[in-house]
UniProtKB/TrEMBL annotation:
Classification lineage: Bacteria, Bacillati, Actinomycetota, Actinomycetes, Pseudonocardiales
Protein name: Lipoprotein
The entry's keywords: Signal
Organism: Pseudonocardia humida
UniProt key word Signal: yes
Signal peptide positions (record): 1-21
């Protein structure tokens, strides 16, 4: 019995008697590990409006509000990480500015105030075959997993994006 107790005590000392630098190293590694972030995937082409079904972009949305998911790296501006998103507002199957600019913001767990998007004028890019959109920019204050929400009238579109420094 004494031998068994000695063996258990030795095992406990071996496990707990390590230097204090190892837990710090583990804490540092855990802090540096990327957060688990399941990004939203694009809506399949067959489930998109006709105008977006033939587009090569990664589109996500519903009803009269669609967004192009980021397919390019972020940029930095001052101390922010900047991503741009085209937002398409539709009336029927046609893009329109008549419905106005969607309300868009981003939020991250632990952040109390959403980060609003800023919009440029309603635009059309060369070679997009009549696809017009609202260009939006979001200046994320930090990297991480962010939920972006857009609303237009009764329609709300929400997606998750991983924001990484360039």
């Amino acid at each position: 019995m004494r031998i068994a107790l000695a063996a258990v005590a030795g095992l406990v000392l071996l496990c707990c008697g390590c230097s204090t630098s190892q837990p710090e190293a583990l804490q540092t590694a855990a802090a540096a590990a990327p957060m688990n972030c399941t990004e939203t995937v694009a809506t399949p082409a067959g489930s998109r409006p006709a105008l977006l079904a033939t587009s090569t972009g990664s589109w996500f949305g519903a009803a009269d509000l669609w967004v192009g998911l980021p397919d390019h790296p972020a940029a930095t501006q001052d101390e922010s990480i900047v991503l741009k998103f085209p937002w398409v507002t539709l009336q029927g199957d046609e893009p329109t500015s008549a419905l106005g600019v969607p309300q868009v913001s981003a939020i991250r767990p632990g952040l109390m105030t959403p980060v609003p998007a800023s919009f440029g004028p309603y635009s059309q890019s060369y070679g997009t075959g009549g696809l017009a959109f609202w260009p939006a920019t979001i200046e994320f204050p930090s990297p991480g997993c962010w939920t972006v929400s857009g609303s237009l009238g009764p329609t709300t579109v929400e997606f998750v994006v991983r924001v990484s420094p360039p």
